[in-house]
Amino acid sequence: LPTLSPFLVIDMKGSYLLLEYATSRTVTSVDRLGNIKSSRWERTHRVRIHRNSVFVIERRTLLDVAGNIARLPGDIVLSTTVGQEIAEASAPVVAGALELMAPAFQ
Fold it and tell me: From CA 48, how far away is CA 86, in angstroms rounded?
């Protein structure tokens, strides 16, 4: 299996996922006249693996995309030095607020 390649979940049965991934290959050849020919082909493959073997990097549901868009301004602010300083200064307050809200999430 190619490492760090994107896999697409096709089906879920029990604890196993049916994943699809693509591989590509480029073949270059030179004929007798010195002309260079290059061809590329791509194939898709499927494999069934246990769900504990998968690390999810990106989800593509509408709700996930909406959440990513909503978090984007915060990510931009936190990538600046001022944003990082504010995050460090407010960390104890945020931790306390999360501790108080924890029973509501259970």
Answer: 45
- Reading the block at residue 25, the tokens are 């290959």
Neighbours of 90 (CB within 10 A): 11
- Exposure letters 43-66 (e unless 16+ CB within 10 A, then b): eeeeeeeeeeeeeeeeeeeeeeee
pTM for this entry: 0.43
- Residue 11: beta bridge partners? 18
From 45, 54, 64, select the one nearest 17 (Cα to Cα).
54
β-partners of residue 21 are: 45
C-alpha of 76 from chain center: 19
CA distance 7 to 64: 17
* Helix (H), strand (E) at residue 69: helix 62-78
pLDDT tens digits, one per residue of 78-101:
888 998 899 899 999 988 888 898
């760090």: which residue's tokens? 4
Instruction: Give the SS3 label for residue 15.
Output: coil
CB 2 within 8 A of CB 20: no
